Amino acid sequence: MNLHKRRLLTLAGSATLVASAALVGCGKKEEAPAPASTPSAPASAAAAKPEPLKIAFAYVGPVGDGGWTFAHDNARKALEKEFGDKIVTTFVEKVPESADAERVLRDMVGQGNKLIFGTTFGYMEPMLKVAADSAGVRFEHATGYKTADNMRTYDSRTYEGAYMAGVIAGSMTKSNTLGVVGSIPIPEVIRNINSFTLGAQSVNPKIKTKVVWVNEWFNPPKETEAATTLINGGADILMQNTDSSAVLKTAEEKGKRAFGWDSDMTAYGPKAHLGSAVINWAPYYIKATKDALDGTWSTGKAWWGVKEGAIDMVSIASDVPAEVQDKVAKIKAGLKDGSFAIWTGPIVDNTGKEVLKKGEVADDAFLGGIKFYVKGVEGTVPGNK
C-alpha cells in the first residue's frame, strides 16, 4: 500500500496558488549593447551579464514549523548566501499533496524557474507529470523513488540522527521506557523508531519503546495528545517523527525529557531538551544548484547522511555525561568514515524473528523496505497482521 510521505493539517486553498505567482522573483536584465552598425556603439561593448538562475521551492508545511520545512528554508537561504546574484530563489509554503501541487508546480515553470525542488513524498506524481511537459526545467524531488530524464530524487538518512538520540536516551532514562510520536507508518518512520531503539539498547539492554501514531506530519494538538499519552504510560524520554515542536513542549511542561527533530528545537523546551537530530539540506541544495549552473546536472538518486554533512546531533544537553557525549562523537565519526554501520546483525524483530544475521550489514534496499518493529518496540506496525 502506497502512503503519501507528508500530509498537511489543512489545505492551503486558492490563496497558496495566488501566492505562488506572487512569490516568484525575476532577474534584472542589463541593456544590450547597440548593434555593431550603430556609430555610437563601442567597438568592444561588454557582453550582457547572464540572467540569474531562477529556483523555486514547494513546501508542504509552514516555514515556521520549527522542523521539516524550517530546515528546507534554512537551506534555501544558504543557497542565496553561497551563490549571490547568480541565482534568485522563491518558495510557496503549505502546498498540499493533491492536485493543487501540480498547479503550483506548473505556475513555477510558467514564471521561468529552471530548477524546482519539491520537498515532500506526495509531490512525486505531480512532479513527474509537470516534468514530462517541461523539458528545459530540472526537478528535484525529496524522499521519492521515481525519476525522469529531468527529475531526480534526494533524501537524508534521518535514522542516523535517531540512533544517536537513542544512545543519549538509553543513558539518561530512569524508567527504561522511551516514547515515540509517529507520523505515518511508512518505512522511513518505522526505520527511525527502530534505529532510536537500537541506539538506546546499545547502552541499556533493558530499554522498551512505546509508539503512538498520529497519522499526520504536522498537527500540534494531536502531537501534544500523543506525547501526553506516552508520558502517562511511563515514558520519561520522548522522540518524534513529526514536524512541529509540540512533543518537546509537552515534555517541558510535564517535567520529562525529549529531542528536537529535523531542526534545532532547543528554544522550545530548554529544560527538556536532550539534543536535536537535525537535517542540513544545504550541502545537497548547493550541489544541485552548482550542477544546474555548470550544465552538469543529470538524473539520479541521492541519500545523504552524516558522511555528507546532511545529518547531525546538535546542542546536546550539558547534563548528558561526558562519556555519553564521547560515545555519540565516536558514532558520528564512524558513520562519517564508514567504519560503523547502525544496522548490523544479529537483529531480530519484536516477535523474535531474525531479520539480519550476525555480522550482516543491511543495504539500502533492506533499509528502504522496513515494515517491522525491532525487539523492544511494543505493539505491531499499523497495517501488519
Question: What does it look like?
Answer:
The chain has 2 domains: 14-26 and 50-156 and 282-304, Response regulator (Rossmann fold), CATH 3.40.50; 158-271 and 309-367, Response regulator (Rossmann fold, 3-Layer(aba) Sandwich). Helix content is 34%, strand content 18%. The protein has 11 helices and 14 strands. The protein has helices spanning 14-23, 68-83, 99-110, 124-132, 158-172, 187-201, 220-232, 246-253, 282-294, 322-337, 364-367, and strands spanning 53-58, 87-92, 115-118, 138-142, 151-156, 177-182, 208-213, 237-240, 257-262, 273-279, 301-304, 311-314, 347-348, 354-356. The strands form 3 sheets. A 6-stranded parallel sheet has the order 2-1-3-4-5-11, with helices on both faces. Strand 6 (177-182), helix 6 (187-201) and strand 7 form a beta-alpha-beta unit. Residues 1-45 have low confidence and may be disordered. Keywords: Signal. This is Membrane protein. Pfam families: Bmp.
Sheet of most strands:
6 strands, parallel
Count of the separate structural domains: 2
Which strand order does the major sheet show? 2-1-3-4-5-11
- State the distance separating the first and last CA atoms: 14 Å
**Which H/E pattern describes the elements?**
HEHEHEHEEHEHEHEHEEHEEHEEH
Shape: globular
Percentage of residues in strands:
15-25%
How large is the radius of gyration?
A: 23 Å
What is the CATH T-level topology of the largest domain?
Rossmann fold
Under the CATH scheme, the architecture of the largest domain is 3-Layer(aba) Sandwich
Overall residue-averaged pLDDT value? 89
- Discrete helix count: 11
Record field, number of beta strands: 14
Keywords: Signal
Domain ABC transporter substrate-binding protein PnrA-like: 54-326
Signal peptide: 1-21
InterPro entries: ABC-Purine-Binding, PnrA-like
